[in-house]
Amino acid sequence: MWNTKPPLFLLKDKHFYIGLSILYDGCFTHGKFYLDTLLKQGKNIALKSPDNDIKTGEVILISQPEMRAFLEERYELKILEELHITGLYQVVGETNFDIRD
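Given the sequence above, the corresponding structure tokens read:
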């Protein structure tokens, strides 16, 4: 049976007030319409790639397993919500990740 209940983070405006970033690696054409719609509504949302600077306190939405692994290697995360491969996380600190290791 299909779960028709929407993820809670889609219903909570509070994440938009503190800033919500979508972390996505690659072409985001399929989500650009939704991102543009939210921006036109005045929501505080941004699209980031792994090359962007991620800051402590930031709320990150991911839907790619490799982006979750990227975040977990480099940052301490607080899980706000997870549904299948999609997750909403808050960055609470940085790890001692060193690319030279």
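Strands lie at 20-23, 45-48, 59-62, 75-83, 86-94. Try to locate this feature in the token string yourself.
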